[in-house]
Write a structure and sequence with these properties.
single chain, 301 residues, 37% helix, eight-stranded parallel barrel
Length: 301
């Protein structure tokens, strides 16, 4: 990063056509990591894996926490898909989180140089927190509030959620690009990860056919290495173990050339999630701090 904060984001971000294949990690912040912890992890994501982005998952409501995210990202040279976390209890806390995030984005001079997008999520359509019309209104309002910063706005959700809401065309029209969830382990047709490509394509094709050429990221994207309450499969043949988690990411990496050609500037995919300490079974790192399997996916092809 430059020694001083630039005066404008003009020309700052890479062309989205270059953002395909592996682009980074989901990163849960419920633990309210210290600035030092954030810097260590973000630097590792950038240097060890050539990650461009971290996508926030969960929420830390401590005052100044997103300032720490900004500082750590600036230090590491990495971008952030920020998140207005709705949670799972149907409460209105997301409104307070939205307002706090927007205040930080406007007060921190580095914010627009590391915040690639603001997401409403996770899965507000699926959870029925807001109607498609109300969610779209929130997106339009956020875009207006962040317009002077040049920060785009999107929704973090599944193809299924859109389909169950008649395509939610109001939301599709409002969002700047697509942050899609891809969790084929939960499909009723799931078996092993090596057989999951048709399931991935089904959801991806829905987005391609319905988002008018907007950029697509697979933002909450992975295969668990174990099942437990809340992570039960919907197919009796779905297998959750470390080998299948590894196989899923190997499968995605093998499709780099395809992802490069998808309309909208290609498809960039994130690994959900950075560590098993954040969400058991989903991590690339185990609770012992070691990689669960070799992980070096391509960032270009």
């Amino acid at each position: 990063m430059p020694s001083t904060v630039p005066s404008s984001t003009d020309g700052w971000w890479c062309d989205m056509d270059t953002e395909y294949g592996f682009v980074g990690f989901s990163y849960e912040v419920t633990a309210c990591q210290t600035l030092g912890e954030l810097e260590t992890d973000f630097k590792n994501i950038r240097k060890q894996f050539e990650g461009r982005y971290i996508r926030l998952y969960g929420a830390c409501d401590n005052d100044g926490f997103y300032d720490d995210i900004i500082e750590a990202a600036w230090t590491a040279g990495i971008g952030v898909h920020a998140l207005i976390w709705f949670g799972f209890d149907g409460s209105d806390e997301w409104m307070t989180r939205r307002d706090a995030l927007f205040a930080t984005l406007h007060s921190n001079l580095k914010a627009s140089f590391v915040t690639r997008v603001v997401q409403f999520g996770s899965e507000p359509l699926y959870d029925g927190v807001l109607s498609p019309q109300d969610l779209a209104a929130q997106v339009w309002d956020a875009k207006a509030q962040l317009d002077d910063l040049g920060i785009p706005v999107t929704v973090s959700d599944m193809a299924y959620s859109y389909e169950e809401n008649d395509g939610a065309p109001e939301v599709i029209q409002a969002i700047d690009f697509v942050d899609a969830h891809m969790l084929p382990y939960f499909s009723q047709q799931a078996s092993i990860a090596n057989n999951s490509w048709p399931l991935v394509l089904d959801d991806l094709d829905w987005f391609v056919d319905n988002v008018y050429g907007k950029k697509i990221y697979l933002i909450q994207n992975g295969w668990p290495s174990k099942n437990y309450s809340g992570v039960e499969p919907n197919s009796p043949y779905a297998v959750a173990n470390v080998q299948n988690e590894h196989d899923y990411y190997t499968l995605l990496d093998s499709k780099c050339t395809y992802f490069k050609t998808v309309p909208g500037g290609g498809v960039g995919w994130f690994a959900h999630i950075y560590s098993d300490n954040m969400e058991p079974g989903y991590g690339i790192y185990g609770t012992n701090g070691k990689l669960k399997f070799p992980f070096a996916p391509r960032t270009s092809c």
